[in-house]
Specification:
Layout lengths: L2 H16 L12 H20 L1 H5 L8 H26 L5 H9 L17 H18 L8 H29 L3 H20 L11 H6 L7 H18 L10 E3 L4 E3 L5 H11 L3 H14 L1 H22 L1
Antiparallel strand pairs: 1-2
Helix pairs in contact: 2-4, 4-7, 6-7, 6-8, 6-10
The structure holds Phenylacetyl coenzyme A.
């Protein structure tokens, strides 16, 4: 293709983005647009399935049958989210095997938040309330992202995340209204998950290398800092409602901007976790690699069955 023809295609593509049209897998797109989407969608997919591990740790220790059923359903939803996202990513011409290989070899990133340990039952409350809460704030704008398969996957994901957030908040509320020991457990979980939840929304805008281009392509509809502010403004009154204290001495209502000012995050900790040196990075990856290796016989059996069925159909056709 000549340079002029590519330029022409780029202009048509930019005009479609400007008109808020969805870009579909078979449409022409700039190579960088395709690569950026593979990066973000696959990181998102990996986050969903690695994100099952911290909560999976508590299925057998849920305090009642009702809690166990809800937690199990929530974790299964996360597996479903991973599958929609891997499928959306595959439409961009990358295989599931390649994506898994990138995760297992440590080449691909997944959300920093899932590298923290779940120490008590209250952590199930804190994850649902704060982690799913932050995920919704991040993902609602993605329902109108420019790439069709990603946007459509997000619609259902957001509906399910909303149930997850309520499920978590309800656990926290019950603990906060319980005995002194239960309330302390809830406060301790909030203390440990607050800052990682804020950092999960990505580096400060000034440090975010992808935001500018991703906003132009309407992949991102809101910046990391805007999402973080929205999360703080939404969550602080919820903490107040259940009598828990946000662990930030600098948190203060700002009358002029009609939102909260809040303290500095520990970015050194964030980058350490992102680079693989968080409290549970090694454990998480080894759990995924193990699952992949132990599941080989299932994949082989499914392939053998599919081949047998296909041969049967060919024989019947003859
Ligand atoms: N962790 O330039 P930016 C969930 C990396 S799903 C690790 O700002 P971008 C559901 C970033 O990749 C949670 N790495 O990047 C659930 C880039 O590195 P690269 C996941 C991070 O893409 C709940 C570099 O830093 N959600 O929770 C993180 O424009 C409960 C520079 O950053 C999504 O993935 C991080 N937190 O903005 C499941 C949503 N932040 O690739 C189970 C979709 C940044 O150049 C239980 N993703 N980095 O090597 C997004 O919206 C964006 O990708 C951001 C980052 C906002 C996460």
């Amino acid at each position: 293709m000549s340079e002029k023809e590519v330029k022409n295609l780029e202009e048509i593509f930019d005009a479609r983005i400007a008109r808020d049209e969805k870009i579909e897998p078979k449409d022409w797109m700039p190579e960088k647009y395709r690569q950026t989407h593979i990066r973000q969608i696959s990181q998102h997919a990996h986050s969903e399935i690695v994100g099952m591990l911290p909560e999976g740790n508590w299925i057998t220790r849920a305090p009642s049958l009702k809690r166990k059923v809800a937690l199990l359903a929530k974790i299964q939803d996360e597996a479903g989210h991973g599958l929609y996202l891997y499928s959306a990513c595959e439409t961009l011409g990358v295989s599931r095997e390649e994506l898994y290989e990138q995760l297992h070899s440590g080449k691909a990133k997944y959300s920093s938040i899932f590298n923290y340990p779940t120490l008590t039952w209250a952590d199930m409350g804190a994850i649902g309330w704060l982690v799913d809460g932050a995920a919704i704030i991040n993902q609602v704008p993605l329902c109108s992202t420019s790439f069709g398969p990603y946007a459509r996957a997000m619609v259902r994901v957001c509906k399910e995340e909303s149930f997850h957030q309520r499920q978590g908040f309800q656990i926290m509320m019950t603990l906060a209204e319980g005995t002194l020991e239960q309330k302390e457990m809830a406060q301790d979980a909030l203390n440990r998950w607050w800052w990682p939840a804020l950092m999960m929304l990505g580096p400060l805008d000034a440090e975010s290398v992808h935001t500018e281009q991703s906003m132009k392509w309407k992949l991102k509809r809101k910046s990391n800092d805007d999402l973080r502010q929205q999360f703080v403004d939404q969550t602080v009154p919820q903490a107040e409602m259940i009598g828990l204290t946000i662990p930030d001495p600098d948190l203060k209502w700002n009358e002029e901007k009609q939102s909260y000012d809040f303290g500095e995050m520990n970015w050194d900790e964030f980058w350490q976790v992102v680079k693989g040196h968080g409290p549970c990075n090694k454990e998480r990856i080894s759990a995924r690699v193990n699952a992949w290796e132990k599941g080989k016989w299932v994949r082989d059996a499914a392939m053998a069955y599919a081949e047998k069925q296909a041969n049967k159909e060919v024989k019947q056709a003859i």
